[in-house]
Amino acid sequence: MTGQEQADSAETERPDMDDKTGQIEASVGDRTDRESRIDDGYLGNNTSPQPIPAPLSPTPQTPPPHSPPPQTQVPPGAPTSPPKGGSSRGFLAYVAIVLSLILIIGVSLAVIFGGVDLHGVYTDKDQVAVIYVQGMMITGGIPDGFGVSTSESVCKYLRLAADDNNVKAIVLRVNSPGGSVAASQEIKKEIEKAKEKKPVVISMGDVAASAAYHISAPADRVVANPGTITGSIGVIWAFENKSGYYDEEGIEHWVAKSGEFKDMGADWRNLTADEQAYANEVVMEVFSMFVDDVAAGRNMTREEVLNLSDGRIYTGAAAVELGLVDETGNMYDAIDIAAELGNITGEPTITYMNKPSLSQLLFGGEESIGDISPYTGPGFLDSVRSAQPCLYELYMPDPADVPV
Questions:
Q1: What is the mean pLDDT of the chain?
Q2: Which are the catalytic amino acids?
Q3: Residue 380's domain spans which residues?
Q4: What's the CATH number where 363 sits?
């Protein structure tokens, strides 16, 4: 072959070599692009892969005998299926825990704030029930622990203790300046009913005067501290005349009434002479009931009680000498006496029927007591006047004498 022919042949083969080189480069590029698209998860069904040259020496790879199955790659953001059975059990356990916490918290708050009747918790057969009478005695639905003691509450616990065969005796812990006539009469009546079933003993605290003494008189035994304030046997009905204030403020009243005494006690005028006489009659009528109850409860004559019933107070020690109290002692002395009267041998189980709770500590002070006027207040005088339709058996010290 001549040199010319060799040059022509080289020129002819050069394009062929260029074409083959281009095909190989395109094939390698397509393979690289395809592998990249497969890794990114974007290889679609419409992709037409270019033929890939087979490797020169393919070496089959044998998986290990116990290798785990290959994990399928989950695209980012794809929803995952919840575990079977585990989620429902976990939810039920969560609900049970929440309900248990709510129950525990509710019971705890009820016990702390005194809203739970703990009667019946004790199972001992030799019990002495202690019932507290604290604050001014009234009738009505005001909760205990607000500086008052309602006759409904005291009577309820008296009935529970009297009907409980495990309770052999009852102690009333009295710490009250008195209260309304109706409230004392209701409590006194329930004490007399309880006495028919088991002994009732009174334990006097700081003050057990007027209506508080009224409910104490019929008990089987009355125990007071030597310095207890008691007595104050009497009845009071106070009225207030604010007519001067209304005149200064230019306030006038016009009253339509069906009878002469219908607006008796209204604070825009003073009592008439007839109204004053009538008020004295009512007070003396109720006072006579008080005296008769004390005479019957303390086995005294009416004259003996009248001699002690000018409204004055007595210390516990003086009341023992006068026959109004049986002996001096504290609450646990009264409990021992009750256990003896109830024929309890050994140490009795003390059941506190309505023991003072946290709410009484929070709301029993003077500031909170004033919030529920007209029932109570320092010195009690202003509160009694604002509640003028009600008769009171109440020890009313001068406000200047009330200890701060």
A1: 78
A2: 210, 262
A3: 109-401
A4: 3.90.226.10
